[in-house]
Amino acid sequence: MPSKARNSGAVKFYNLSVEERLRVLADESGLQEGALQAFTAQGGLNVEQADHMIENVAGLHALPLGIARNFIVNGREVLVPMAIEEPSVVAGASFMAKLARPAGGFFTHADPPHMIGQMQILDTVHPQEARLRLLEQKERLLDDVREIDPLLKKLGGGPRDLQVRVIEDSPIGPFLVAHLIYDVRDAMGANAVNTAVERIAPAVEAITGGRVLLRILSNLADQRLARARCTIRLADLGFDAFTPEEVRDGIIAAWAFAAADPYRAATHNKGIMNGVDAVVLATGNDWRAVEAGGHAYAARAGRYTSLSTWGKDAEGNLIGTLEMPMAVGLVGGATKVHPTAQAALKLMGVQTAAELAQIIAAVGLAQNLAALRALATEGIQRGHMSLHARQVAIAAGAPAELVEKLAQQLVQEKTVRIDRAEEILRAWQNQ
Ligand SMILES: CC(C)(COP(=O)([O-])OP(=O)([O-])OC[C@H]1O[C@@H](n2cnc3c(N)ncnc32)[C@H](O)[C@@H]1OP(=O)([O-])[O-])[C@@H](O)C(=O)NCCC(=O)NCCSC(=O)C[C@@](C)(O)CC(=O)[O-]
Ligand SMILES: NC(=O)C1=CN([C@@H]2O[C@H](COP(=O)(O)OP(=O)(O)OC[C@H]3O[C@@H](n4cnc5c(N)ncnc54)[C@H](OP(=O)(O)O)[C@@H]3O)[C@@H](O)[C@H]2O)C=CC1
User: Fold this and answer.
1) Is the CB of 377 under 6 A from ligand 1?
2) Model's pTM, two decimal places?
3) What would the DSSP string read from start to end of 395-414?
4) Does ipTM surpass 0.90 in this model?
5) Which residue among 53, 151, 185 has the greatest number of ligand 2 atoms within 8 angstroms of its CB, and so is best to mutate?
């Protein structure tokens, strides 16, 4: 069901209580009363459910779930759930989505959900000849794979290609690698792919005369890229004493640093992953898989670099792009089991895994912009630390009724430090 969210920037959402926010979200998304119950402590994952998810369960580990506002993705208003412990990320994403709105928000698309299953083929007498034998039998092998999963076949998924290459230089000498390209539809796809490569391995051994050792999905899902772009009008970039041109050119120079230097690129991409991981996590998807894929893709040319690009268009507006592997699903893993993940998907109103992947790319790009805009102007600490101050106040032992007051005091003093927070608390208690 598509989300009916109206212009989510119209409400000062962050000034509401948690209960009021839930009511606003239900109203904006057109969901039934109670559909977002899973966002509350009473309605989320319980220990009994958790006990069936992993091993040796001893309890639950909760994270804050915030909602990024103002996102327009391909013309549609989207409310974006983000599970993250770090202050200023949700605010930064919401702010940049607001800046992107006048030029239409985010424009995204994604490749078909093609995942790669790898087979490592050892002990062939002549790897190059074995490669050709395998390619000659490609259609027969793909036909065999097609029959493994009738549901996926019915849904329009299944095998798409078999690619074979020889790795000439490895610590154990040359060997053959086959990639089964598999359309996993709305799944992340690890299980379907792993099943398929394990099933066809004996046939691969018979054809090549070799021994198939590893049969496993590759997390470098470079056949399943998600892409997002946005334009920020020059006029909307001015900020404090900084002219729009200074902000734009600062952002471009900050990106150039990441494009050219891996030490900076790691931090730059961490900023992108602040947004990406938070949505991946909120929807019950495997963030290790997305992280591994993203960083491997960033190093694909043999040198680790930025996942995004920033530049200017003919009118001088700022333009940003992000392209990265996005292996996320709507059906498998924890997405179907975790009640909060189910509610998060409903709130976004996504129908396909590809649609979810595109929203995640948009959030990654917005998050990158938030960090670059702050870094290239006032620095990261003012915006970040003023929101971080509440966490420092809690860590210093402030009771709930004093958290906000203490945080404000720390920000005012420009000393967001736990020792100072403890000192202030002691002074208040002795009054
Ligand atoms: C934090 C802001 C947004 C403040 O920015 P500001 O200028 O103080 O904000 P504002 O009060 O003018 O409000 C502007 C908009 O921000 C949002 N906003 C504002 N306050 C809130 C709030 N309390 N709760 C929710 N949303 C908030 C909201 O959308 C609001 O619009 P409105 O709704 O009022 O029309 C800005 O300073 C910012 O974007 N900073 C960067 C945040 C960031 O990148 N955090 C990541 C943590 S640092 C890191 O891990 C990565 C890094 C930095 O190393 C990556 C890298 O190096 O590239
Ligand atoms: N390297 C990695 O990243 C690895 C990750 N994992 C884990 O794998 C999990 C994700 O695996 P995944 O295979 O997605 O999950 P599942 O196997 O749980 O779910 C996918 C299955 O759901 C069924 N299905 C129902 N409807 C659809 C639909 N519309 N589109 C596609 N499939 C549908 C299909 O199974 P059927 O046809 O059989 O009913 C499909 O194979 C994650 O938990 C991840 O952590 C595991 C191993 C390695």
Assistant:
1) no
2) 0.94
3) HTT--HHHHHHHHHHHHHHT
4) yes
5) 151
